Every structure is written in structure tokens, then in C-alpha cells.
Amino acid sequence: MTYRADPARYDAMEYRHTGRSGLKLPVISLGLWQNFGGTRDYPSAFEILSYAFDRGVTHFDLANNYGPPPGAAEELFGQVLARDFRPYRDELIISSKAGWGMWPGPYGDFGSRKYILASADQSLRRLGLDYVDIFYHHRYDHSTPLEESMGALAQLHRQGKALYVGISSYREDDTRKAHAMLKEMGVPLLIHQPSYSILNRWIEDDRTIEACGELGVGVIAFSPLAQGVLSGKYSKDKDGTRAAEKNSTINPKALQPDVLKAVDALGEIASRRQQTLVQLALSWVLRRPEVASALIGVRTLEQLKDCLGAVNAEKLSPADLKAIDAAAKGGMLDQRPNW
């Protein structure tokens, strides 16, 4: 059966300009890290992806290493593009990244020109695309001159393989340097993708978010639910969740009693606002004018529906914000980049 997108798909979603650019992003974007790898079959992937698009989620965020195994998420999304989403390509924002280990040897990781350009070409082949809308350097690399990494992004932009370029997990000083270098090359820095949540505020402490606002760089927040901790599910029972899995990527510090106590207190605030905790956490991230979008990851359709409930939610009042700060105080996590 041929997929036909919902004609009303743009009726309810909110879109925001990304920094000082003409590009608008949906306030909720869908990331394919962890949950769209080799264990995900086509029907279940398409159920989630098509439901998201039918409700105005136009931005799908990938990276070379998303899976597992690395590359699997791009391959699966490429299949969805080829079979069902192809007529809607010009309505989609598709992003990818390079910066983490992908293949053996000295040229398959970090930030060299050789690695970034080769990885981008591999991502395009997996996706079946001539270009991505946004291509990021996934993490700052102290072992490579920043001019080289930014030069590789500028080359992708000039070649038409990336309409826009961005950075991820860069601290304030390095964000400013990257912006200046790209500007000198005639390429705007569109977007910064840092981790950011009620429990993880390093971009406020570091003033990275203020720098982005000053420079006109949009912010898209990843892990706005603190890897699911702000869903409240780990306060109840970890069985059946990602935290219970062997080789879980969840920071053990996020499951400490003081953190879970803070999560419970935040849940009470959400209940008073007649929101789920997930929706409160997304509303909090989206309160900042610098934030164009909150980047979510979901395993199930029910989780996606919960997140989409934050769209057009009632704004947080000063009293709400004060209560959230008080509730979160004892459970704060320091997850700033350590490279």
C-alpha cells in the first residue's frame, strides 16, 4: 500500500527559526540514535517515522555511528526514504554527523578533513541521497586544528553535499571560534546541538547558549529527557528499560537516589500542570528563545505520542520555573563535554 502523508500534517506543529536563518525546525525533532539499529524492522520503524511526519515532525536527525551497529540507522532511514518518503523529500530536514569512531585505523574517527569528508560520502550512500540538509561535526577534537574540521564542513557546503553545517557538544569558546572560522570561509554556522535538560544545564553554566543567541546560531537540545530519566520510568522499575540492558549507555550517576528523588518531585509539578513529566521536561527546554527544537529519541509509538503532547503546551510561569529549580536542585547532573 502506498503511503500518503496526512494533509493536515502542518496544522498543529509549531516551527521556529533556527538562529538568524531562514530555516525553521519543528519544536520536536526525532533522533534515530539507539532505537533504529539492526534490531528494528521496517514496519515498526515506518510506524513511528510516518506518525511523526503526519504530525508535522519534519526533522529527522542521524549520524554515521547511529545504530547499533554503526551505520544501521542511516541504512534503515534510507530504505524508508526510498520506499515511502521519497515524494516528500523537499518537506524533510535530514541531518547527519561525523566525529565518533566508524572504521579501524587513524582515519576513521575525530575531526580530520579526510575522516569528515569520507564519512559524509558514506552517510550519503547509506541514505541514498545526494545531499543532507544539515551536516555536523559531532564533537570537538583537540588533536586536529579547528580550522581543518571547519574547513571540511565548508567544503561539504560548497560541494552541495550539505545545505547547512553545524557543530555538536562544543563549549562556548570553541563555539565562538568555529563560528568565526566558518564566517571567514563564507559559510554560516547554522546550529549547535548540545545536551540540555532540567537536570543537565552545562550550556547555561558555560554560557554556550548565550553565545549561540549572540551569534545567531540556533540550538537543538539533545537528551532533553536526560536519556529517559525525566520520563520517570527509572524511579519505578528499571526492568525492561534501557538501563537494565547489558552495556547500557545511561550514565549510572543519573540513577542515583538523589536524582530519582528530584525526578519524583518534578513529576508532582507536572501533575499539577496536567502534563506528563516528559511534556514538562520538553516545555522547560523549549522555554529558551535560543532553542529551535528539542531532539527526542523513542522506542515506541506511545513514547512519541507522549512527547508530541508538549507541542503548543501552556508556557511555564515564573512560579513553575521557580518550583522546577527547587525540585531539581539536589539531582543535578554535570554532563558537559570532557574532551
Describe this structure in words.
- This protein has 339 residues and is α/β, with parallel strands linked by helices.
- It has a single domain (15-331), classed as TIM Barrel (Alpha-Beta Barrel).
- It is 38% helix and 14% strand.
- It has twelve helices and ten strands.
- The chain has helices at 42-54, 72-85, 113-127, 146-158, 172-184, 202-205, 208-215, 233-236, 257-272, 277-285, 301-308, 318-328, and strands spanning 15-17, 24-26, 28-31, 59-61, 93-98, 132-137, 162-168, 189-193, 218-222, 291-296.
- The protein is globular.
Main attributes of the structure:
12 helices; TIM Barrel; alpha/beta; 10 strands; two-stranded antiparallel sheet; 339 residues; 8-stranded parallel beta barrel
Rg for CA atoms: 19 Å
- Relevant CATH superfamily: NADP-dependent oxidoreductase domain
State the CATH topology: TIM Barrel
**Which bin fits the share of residues in helices?**
25-40%
Share of residues in strands: 5-15%
Residue ranges: pLDDT <50 for 5 or more in a row? none
- H/E element sequence: EEEHEHEHEHEHEHHEHHHEHH
Can you summarize the main beta sheet? 8 strands, parallel, barrel
CATH architecture: Alpha-Beta Barrel
Number of helices, counting only DSSP H or I runs of 4 residues or more: 12
Structural class: alpha/beta
Strand segment count:
10
Basic shape: globular
Classified by CATH, the class is Alpha Beta
User: How many distinct domains?
Assistant: 1
- What is the average per-residue confidence, as pLDDT, rounded to a whole number? 95
**In whole angstroms, how far apart are the ends?**
48 Å
Strand order of the largest sheet: 3-4-5-6-7-8-9-10
